[in-house]
Design brief:
Elements lengths: L6 E4 L4 E5 L3 E7 L3 E7 L4 E7 L19 H14 L8 E6 L15 H16 L5 E4 L4 E7 L4 E7 L11 E4 L1
Parallel strand pairs: 1-3, 6-7
Antiparallel strand pairs: 2-5, 3-8, 4-5, 4-6, 8-9, 9-10
Length: 175
């Protein structure tokens, strides 16, 4: 049986996609955070890429916040899972991102935006009653993610060249 090449979807900040095994999702994260969810039986799932921990205006459907914000992004993915006739608790979740993109620059904010994004994502997942089965958050630099919706595997490359140590620590992992 010939395996089809998945359709590639690139997520920009503030976007999400939910689909079946025919898709592969990609994104690049700095201080933003991505949450993935995957249904192991139905081989479907999605990814959101949110920019900010909270605030914003109601979304078009009026039942949450914009997907640019943590709560709106997660609520939108859950809404999509329900449209497919599945329950969010039947999915596995993974959490990525929240890097410090400007090390050494002391801003007015107490908590760097990346760290605040990760904290908010963890809180929302805890309130939902789930724990991420994999997580790669914080640190410095960018992360490139590729999610194979057919298997739920997320490939990640992390470029930590801005850590201040003067050393590039490139890493790739699948989780």
């Amino acid at each position: 049986m010939r395996q089809l090449t998945p359709i590639e979807i690139y997520l920009k900040p503030g976007e999400l996609f939910f689909g079946d095994e025919t898709t592969r999702l990609r994104t690049i994260l700095g201080s933003c955070v991505a949450i993935t969810m995957w249904h192991p039986v139905r081989r479907m799932g999605g990814m959101c890429h949110f920019m900010l921990p909270g605030g914003g205006h109601p979304d078009r459907e009026g039942d949450g916040l914009s997907p640019r914000f943590a709560e709106g992004a997660l609520n939108s993915m859950i809404r999509e899972a329900r449209r497919f006739g599945t329950r969010e608790l039947d999915y596995t979740f993974k959490l990525f991102g929240g890097g410090n993109m400007f090390p050494g620059i002391a801003g007015r904010q107490q908590v760097p935006i990346g760290e605040a994004n990760v904290q908010r994502a963890r809180t929302l997942l805890e309130e939902l009653g789930v724990r991420p089965v994999a997580e790669h958050t914080g640190g410095y630099g960018q992360r490139v993610l590729v999610m194979e919706v057919s298997s739920g595997v997320v490939w990640m490359r992390h470029d930590d060249t801005h850590s201040g140590a003067g050393v590039s620590t490139h890493g790739e992992l699948a989780c």
